[in-house]
Amino acid sequence: MTAINQANSRTKLYGWLDPTLNFSTSTHSNAPEANDDYPNRLEMNQVVLYVERLPDSVQQDHIDWGYHLTALYGTDYHFTLAKGYLSGQLLNDHHQYGFDPTLEYVDIYIPQVAQGMNVRVGRFISVPGIEAQLAPNNYIFSHSLLYAIDPFTDTGLMATIKLTDQWLVQLGITAGHDVALWTSDAKPSGTDCVSYTTKS
Predict the structure, then answer these.
(1) Cβ neighbours of 72 (radius 10 Å)
(2) Distance CA 60, CA 152 (A)
(3) CA-based, 20 to 30 A from 141: which of 18, 24, 46, 177?
(4) Angle subtended at Cα 12 by Cα 171 and Cα 165, rounded to the nearest 5 degrees
(5) How many Cα atoms within 13 Å fall on the side-chain side of residue 130?
(6) CA 3 to chain CA mean position, Å
(7) Are 75 and 36 within 8 A, CB to CB?
(8) Is 7 left (phi over 0), alpha (psi -120 to 50) or beta?
(9) CA distances from 89 to 26, 75, 81, 114, 148 (A)
(10) Cα–Cα distance between 30 and 159 in angstroms, integer?
(11) What residue spans define the domains of the chain?
């Protein structure tokens, strides 16, 4: 990946492989445990490719832009898939392995709003929570059933505004959790978040 990304372009290409092996007393399923569904076998949970360009949000003199695309293949597509994004492979065909275009969004960074505002449009990881299903953000691999029913992605628009060095706010409108804008389940849903970081 280092060799591929040697060019001066701000677009980066990288990814990972995430295989697992587990042993269980069950012969059919590890439910209600989340993530490692299939007992007593070697699985390829994630084969992931990222293509991204991060906006320059350190500077304060010009508007900048970025984008992010994630392609995921493996058994973990069960936990990342949103209705309307190739969801028939799971909901209709019940495939063990599948493909999910997990994240695809564009960022516009506007430094003139407060101390900087980033506007994200597309499909992105939902705001709540400290973990995500993607392997580098999944600190404890096996989880309870409750982890699996948390929302994973939202499709819509999210503005992140830095008010001060301590205060950050996020406001957005999406189609709801884990559904595409074009599905019958899409409903306009508001999102708001406030973050405070101490000076220390």
Answers:
(1) 26
(2) 32
(3) 177
(4) 40
(5) 3
(6) 26
(7) no
(8) beta
(9) 25, 12, 10, 44, 18
(10) 39
(11) 54-196
Please compute, for residue 139, the number of CA atoms within 13 A of its CA located in the half-sphere on the CB side.
3
Identify which of 174, 67, 64, 197 has the alpha carbon closest to the alpha carbon of residue 127: 174
Q: Which two tokens stand for residue 187?
A: 């409903």
Q: What is the 3-state secondary structure (H, E, C) of 16-63?
A: EEEEEECCCCCCCCCCCCECCCCCCCEEEEEEEEEEEECCCCCCCCCC
Report pTM. Answer: 0.86
Which residues neighbour 188 within 8 Å (Cβ) at sequence distance 6 or greater?
173, 174, 175
Beta strands in the chain (DSSP E): 11-21, 42-53, 64-74, 98-110, 117-125, 153-162, 167-177, 189-196
Q: What six digits make up the tokens of 182? A: 């074009």
Dist CA 55 CA 118 (whole Å): 9
Residue with tokens 């306009």: 188
Two structure tokens written together for 47: 């084969």
Q: pLDDT averaged over consecutive 10-residue blocks of the chain (200 residues)?
A: 68 90 85 79 92 92 96 91 93 93 96 96 84 71 71 93 95 94 95 93
Length of the chain in terms of residues written: 200
Candidates 174, 183, 180; CA nearest to 193 is: 174
